[in-house]
Design a protein that fits this description.
Two copies of one chain form a homodimer. Chain A is mainly alpha-helical. The first copy, chain A, has eleven helices and two strands, in the order H-H-H-H-H-H-H-H-H-H-E-E-H. The N terminus of chain A is likely disordered. The first copy, chain A, binds a DNA duplex through helix 2 and helix 3.
DNA sequence: CACCAATGTCACCGCGCGGTGACTATCGAG
DNA sequence: CTCGATAGTCACCGCGCGGTGACATTGGTG
C-alpha cells in the first residue's frame, strides 16, 4: 500500500479524516471567517464534492469535526489545575484560574468562542452542546468530591460572570494587547488571575486548609 | 423643493447622511456579517458608487458612521445610573450595574462588541478609539468627583474582569437565552446585577453613606 | 441662454462562492 | 477477466460580491 503518496487515498476513512483535519487547521489559522467548502477542500487537497458525498455538506463536516475534536477543557483538567494551584486561596478561585489558563492555551477554543459571539447559524449551534454543562459539572463535583460549601451566595451568577469575563478577555487577546489599561502580557494575566483569586477569597472566605 | 420625494436628493449632504443611516440600520438589524457596499447602497436606495465617491469606500463610510453615532454610553450616563441606584451598595458596584444596563440597552453597541471579538480588520479598528478610555475616565472621575477611595485592591483588574463579563453576557444574550444555567430573563439579569453589587461590597466594603 | 461642475444612474467586469452532473480510476467479488 | 460499486476528478452553473467607466440629470453661474 502506497501510504505516503500525494493525492487521493482511495480510502474513504482517510479522506474523511483529511477533511476534518483540514477544517481544524483552517479554523485554527483563520477562524471561521474564511471557512467554506472550497477552502476546506483546497486545504485537504481533495475535491469539495467529497464534502457533500461524505458529510452531506459543510454542516455535517462541522458536526464531525465537533465530535472528533476535544477543543473544550475537561472538568478533570480544571480540577487538576486547581489542586496544583496551592492552598492559599479558595478552591473555587483556583478553579477559575485553572479555567482561564485552560482556555488561553486552546487557540481552537478561542475561535469557537468568538464564532459563538458573532453569529448564530446552524454551524455554530452544532458545536455548543457538550459544554454548556461544564460549569454545572464543575460546581457539582467541587461540592461532592472536594467538600466545597457554598452558602448565602449566588454562586452560579458569580462564576458565570467570571467565566464570561474570562471568555471575553481571552478571545479579545487574540487581536488586542491590552484591555482596561492592562497589558495582556504575562504580568497582565497574573493581575487578572490575582483578581479572580481575591474575589473568591472575599466572597467565600479564604480557606488556608 | 421636493423634500419628500423618493429617490435622489441632488444634495450630497443628505445622501451622505442617508448612507450613514443605512449603515446604522444594517448593523443594528444584521450585525456586521452582511455589511458591504452593495447592501448599504440597497438599504439607502442609492448607488454604491457614491460610497466610493464620498467616503473613499466602505472604510471611510464606517469611519463616518463611527463619528456620527454615539453608540457608546457616556461616563455621565453611568454616573447618573449609579447615583440613582440607591445607597445600600458600594458606588463602584452600582457603576458596574449601570454599565450593564447601558450596554444592554444599546443593540448597536452589542453588535460592535461582537464585531470586535470576531475579527480584526481595518473596519473594526476604526470604531475602537474613543472607548478604550471609558474605564479610566470612570474610575478617575469616581475618585475625584465622588470621593471613592480604593486601596489594597487592583481595581483595574477587577473592574476590567467585570466589564469583560458584562460584554460577553450581553453580547451572547442576543442569541442565546441562558448562560451558566441562568436564564437571561429579567430575573436572570437581576441575579447578575446582584452578583456585581455583592462582589464590590465584599471587595471594597459596603458603604451605607 | 449656454456652460459646467456636481449629483446620481446604469451597465459591466472579474472573482470566489456554494452546489451539481458527468466523467474516470481503482479494487474486490464472481 | 469481467463487472459493478466505490473513490475521486473535472467542468460547469448561477449568484452576489467589490469595484469601475461611461452616461444622464440637475442646478447654479456667467
Amino acid at each position: 500500500m502506497a501510504e505516503s503518496r500525494r493525492g487521493p487515498f482511495h480510502d474513504r476513512e482517510r479522506s474523511e479524516k483529511a477533511l476534518i483535519d483540514a477544517t481544524r487547521r483552517l479554523i485554527a489559522r483563520n477562524g471561521f471567517k474564511k471557512l467554506g467548502v472550497n477552502a476546506v477542500a483546497r486545504e485537504a487537497c481533495l475535491d469539495k464534492v467529497l464534502i457533500y458525498r461524505y458529510f452531506d455538506g459543510l454542516d455535517g463536516l462541522i458536526r464531525a469535526f465537533g465530535k472528533s475534536t476535544d477543543f473544550w477543557p475537561t472538568a478533570d483538567e480544571i480540577f487538576r489545575g486547581a489542586l496544583e494551584g496551592g492552598d492559599r486561596h479558595h478552591f473555587v478561585g483556583r478553579m477559575m484560574v485553572a479555567y482561564l489558563r485552560a482556555v488561553r492555551a486552546r487557540p481552537l477554543t478561542l475561535e469557537i468562542l468568538a464564532w459563538e459571539m458573532a453569529d448564530r447559524t446552524s454551524l455554530v449551534e452544532i458545536l455548543e452542546g457538550a459544554r454548556e454543562s461544564l460549569g454545572q459539572e464543575l460546581m457539582g463535583r467541587a461540592i461532592t468530591e472536594h467538600g466545597i460549601v457554598i452558602e448565602g451566595t449566588d454562586i452560579a451568577a458569580v462564576t458565570g460572570l467570571m467565566a464570561a469575563g474570562i471568555h471575553y478577555i481571552t478571545v479579545r487577546s487574540r487581536f488586542i494587547d491590552g484591555f482596561n489599561g492592562i497589558a495582556l502580557d504575562e504580568d497582565g494575566w497574573r493581575r487578572y488571575e490575582s483578581a479572580l483569586l481575591l474575589i473568591f477569597d472575599r466572597l467565600l472566605g479564604a480557606e488556608p486548609e
